[in-house]
Write a structure and sequence with these properties.
This protein is α/β, with parallel strands linked by helices. The chain has twelve helices and seven strands. Helices cover 39% and strands 16% of the residues. Strands 4-3-2-1-5-6-7 form a seven-stranded mixed beta sheet, with helices on both faces.
Length: 304
Amino acid sequence: MKDDPLPSWRDGATKTALLDFIVAARSVPVEERVAVFDNDGTLWCEKPDYVQLVFMLDQLAQAIAENPALGDQPEFRALLHHDHAAQAELGLERIALALVQLYAGIEPGEFDERVVQFFADGLHAHREVPYRHLRYRPMLELIEALRAESFGVFVVTGGGTEFVRAISQDFYGVSAEGVVGTLVAYDYSLDDQGRPRLVRTAEMIGSANEGPAKVSNIQRGLGRRPIFAAGNTAGDREMLDYALGADGPTLALLVDHDDADREYAYAAQAGTIDFEGDFVELAQQSGWTVASISDDWNHVFADR
């Protein structure tokens, strides 16, 4: 490990804990060096809206331009009019399922192309920079520091698996098979020439990948228990506890969004998991390491 693999982290208890863990993990067999990272609010900025939601709204606008009647669908009307009361009444799951309908019938490659094009053209609403600039530099350094010690690094997100897979190699150096997220169902059929093809459906497989589902899906998708996990909401609670409870040196990291000047100050909320109380206090009680953006990060964003 080089002299300071985490230059964007300020000296202090959090950086020391991370460096001590990385050194201690050398005692762990290489095949057991597994690190998992949540995505939204952990590896990139999730405000003012989830990036995937912005992508879906962009796709919705294009779909309505072709079929204006879609704008009358209750879920889409609530989104287009920023009607938060209606969105709360409809519920996130119903709205998400409605948005998934926009891609029903298209092949995986076409969906990937749409995502890649969105990131090529899209700019963050407030900061007017490409979304790749809003990856967190300290977390990218942490990923590289873990890789330098032969860790397998994976993204475990509440977002759509395919959405994150389309950019995971470019953004994080994580291959498509290294992404565990919320899954959409596919239909298998033969085309007019008798060749097999897959198309997306409007159905999800199981529940959103938050809470206990993250742990189950880590086992299902990776087959190995992490000894390091990073997250920022109650949707990551079980994943963080699962990593911390493994044998040998372990670490669970919570990113605390407490810097209104350089990023956003807010109490992070999971999309489908309710939590009452102070999540940072829970982190401290649970033995997690807290990364305060305000106190622990010299720099926030990448490519600046």
